[in-house]
Write a structure and sequence with these properties.
By secondary structure, the protein is mostly helical. 60% of the residues lie in helices and 9% in strands. It is built from 7 helices and 2 strands; from the N terminus they run ββααααααα. Helix 4 packs across helix 5. The longest helix has 29 residues, at 19-47. It is elongated, with a radius of gyration of 25 Å. The chain starts with a strand and ends with a helix.
Length: 127
């Protein structure tokens, strides 16, 4: 690799490289960041800090199904169990799952916590 070194006060200040070399370096740096992101995600999964979301969940929510209901069924929990652990009534949960009511941030946060998912996963794709 050829590089022109520009000095200031006898210390290297700049390196000038051919444009093709610059593009190669940028591509390699981006690849390195991708590898680091992959490694970090893999470690997070191994520690249990994160989980893979099955495509069936994503597809169901994108197809318009209620996210609370989809996550509840994925976690194999009954409405009664989710309602009790979230501190709400079963009819209220049912109304949330059928989009007849909109929950407060506090209620939706409690449901998300009960379902071991994020608030964003519960509300991001709601109609």
């Amino acid at each position: 690799m050829s590089a022109q070194i520009i000095k200031k006060n006898d210390r290297p200040e700049w390196a000038v490289v051919p444009y093709e070399t610059y593009l190669e370096l940028v591509e390699k740096a981006e690849m390195l960041l991708d590898v680091q992101d992959y490694d970090n995600a893999k470690k997070s999964l191994q520690r249990g800090d994160d989980e893979l979301i099955p495509s069936e969940i994503v597809d169901a929510i994108l197809d318009g199904e209620n996210a609370i209901k989809v996550w509840r069924e994925f976690r194999k929990m009954s409405q009664q169990e989710v309602a009790e652990k979230s501190g709400i009534s079963i009819p209220y949960l049912s109304q949330l799952e059928t989009n007849k009511r909109t929950g407060s941030v506090e209620v939706l946060s409690a449901i998300a916590k009960t379902l071991n998912t994020s608030l964003e996963n519960i509300v991001a794709l709601q109609p």
